[in-house]
Amino acid sequence: MENTTASSCFLSSLERQKIKDLIADGDPLLCQFRAALHERVYARVATKGLLGPDATTAWYYPAAEYLSDAAMLYTLEPEERLANWLRTVALDIARTSAYDWAGPAFRDHKEPLTGHLETAHLCWALAAVYDLAKDAFSESEQAEIRQALAEKGIALCRQWIAKNNHLANWRGILTSGVVVAAAVLGDQDTLDEYIPELVRCALAFQPDGSYGESLQYGNYLAYALTLGYESLCRTYPERAAQLDVSTYGRGLHWMVSSLFYQKPMGGSWGTEPRARAANFNDSAAIYRPSGDVLLHLAARSNVPDERGLARYLFETYYATVPTQGPHDLATFGMVNDWGFLTLPLLTHESQSISPKEADLPLTHSFSNGHAFLRDVWDGRTIVAINGGGDPLHGPGHLHGDLNSFILVHNRERLLVDPGHSCYRNLIHGLESSTQTHNTCTFLVEAESLGLQEDKAKATVLEQRSVLPRRLITNGVPGPPIDRGNRRLSVDRQDVVSVVGAEISQACGAPIQHFSRFWLLAGSHVLFVVDRIEASQPVTTIWNWLVNNRDGKAQVNTSNVPGATHLTVRRNEAGMKLFHGSNGTLGHPVYGYVHDAYHVEPANRGAGRPGSGLLYRWTEPAPLQTRTVVHAIALDEAHRIDTWQLRTEPNRYTLTNGHKQWTLETGTNLYRLVSGHGRVWTVASENDRWTLQY
């Protein structure tokens, strides 16, 4: 029999006692997060309502975080001012009409009303209050909250689930709203109906735990599943056991690989260190996994290195900055933070394991198409790639960015992904397009353009990024969706790493082949090799997006025939990018580089025009077949000019007089030779590429 007598879904009596004991003993980690929770909650209490004078979002978006924080603090340290605030805010939401529970004006409000993401967040908000702070309310007020959860929250979320049959993060969020609300209400019939649906939602993750939409949306879905599990495991352990934490726990390897470093952003972000990550598709450049998700995995995973890596990420990205905001964007706004589950989950012991201690590969690819090349862990150079992968289990929120990459050296992002801004911004479609990423686009027909025109305004062939949905039929998800990208190679031998991908199907006719290989040699040299074939002549454009988010990029260009190059300096990092063909380098197009998403336009995180400098090399005439090499040197900013490229037929040598690497190209063959004569060969046999040393 299941134990249904526990007083709280989100806090057991044992956890409550451990929190008190650890605070009494002066445990430094738990004490600093208890103090941060107290500071955060009482800052809101002082505003007398849900939103303070500096709010940048509508009330739906921070409701779950603000109310759950307050409820957790109240159950641990009940106090009348806090009780009054909880009653005021929670009852105001409970009494709000179903029309408003359905979400803001841009959501569908046709009758019968349907819930949306905002509805699920309101379920989470009132569920936490009812579970943890019920004593702050009279019997009649408790009845109002129960009625709102059942007749507005659960009912509207159920309506969305019934009307939609595709598998992606939305389904997980709405289903979690139902399950969490039903758990605190003790509605066992609804739990029996929707726990299988929550189990099904976890199938949106790739088999290796990576996620097809983005880091950010993978975290959002994992957060919803975390709340579902945590609402069940103390009161309904047999039901919680149906939920497979490993579906997203396996994704810790992907999360760890995707994180670059942390350091201050400057400007309105302040001086505290903030994460930087591989923000492919709709994801923030300052992504870090939600703190509650990390501690949930540290406590609940059955795999030792997953528990250790989760704890390592929490200690690295949260323990050092417990008061870092903004908390109003913690989930929906995707500037992730820790939340109300942090205190109870910190009472579960776990040991931190670093990526190096876990022996994670320095060159690693994942099912969703992301791949990473590093010189060493915590080293100087990272190449993050969106390349070859498997069909996507949860497609959505994609950009046209296959065979694009992010280049990091000396803790500076030199070549960047643009990220994304408010979805209702007119530029969102443009920042999602292929031409704003570090990959190739193609001119399919020539037009007569004036001298001041950008040639890329001709008919441009870009990748398709809107894919069919993965539909659920009779409770069974359909086959994963093939994006048209194939993995060709992922390997490392000593100091040389190689990743290769082919994406012609994502481009469509007339492109018949588009393979790109990245060959990283040590910390200073990267060769990028493109082989492109088309059924009719096309003009290839190579797009390079330089990071100028803070106006600190120093860029110089040279159009000397045979040595055309781009030199970029950012603080202590330098990059010299040589074009190995006869393309023409144009003046920069002023693009966008976003730090983080915001639900409203013109807010912190949205890049201004020119925050990205988009440089393009364009072929002088259409061709059907070409193999083009770009050679990239990386070094300290003051030394980058010492690097030069020497070219011979099918041979490219990068040297600074002390270090030297040569790339030789042939038919289905790339050979990399060090200055000491050591040779690495990347060769294809029956379309299977291997690295030999």
Q: What would you note in describing this structure?
A:
The chain is built from 18 helices and 28 strands. By secondary structure, it is an alpha+beta fold. The protein folds into two domains: 335 residues, Chondroitin AC/alginate lyase (Glycosyltransferase, Alpha/alpha barrel), CATH 1.50.10.100; 274 residues, Beta-galactosidase, Chain A, domain 5 (Distorted Sandwich). The strands form five sheets. Strands 8, 9, 12, 13, 14, 15, 16, 17, 18, 19, 20, 21 and 22 form a 13-stranded antiparallel beta sheet that branches. A hairpin with a 2-residue loop joins β27 and β28. α3 runs antiparallel to α4 and α8 packs antiparallel against α9. It is elongated and about 85 Å long. The N terminus is likely disordered.
Task: Provide tags for this entry.
alpha+beta; 6-stranded antiparallel beta sheet; 693 residues; Glycosyltransferase; single chain; 18 helices; 13-stranded antiparallel beta sheet; signal; 30% helix; Beta-galactosidase, Chain A, domain 5; disordered N terminus
CATH topology of the largest domain: Glycosyltransferase
Distance between the termini: 60 Å
Mean pLDDT: 95
Rg is 26 Å
What structural class do you assign from the helix and strand content?
Answer: alpha+beta
* Poorly predicted runs: 1-6, 447-453
CATH architecture of the largest domain, please? Alpha/alpha barrel
Subcellular location: Periplasm
Keywords: Lyase, Periplasm, Signal
Pfam families: Hepar_II_III_C
Main location: periplasm
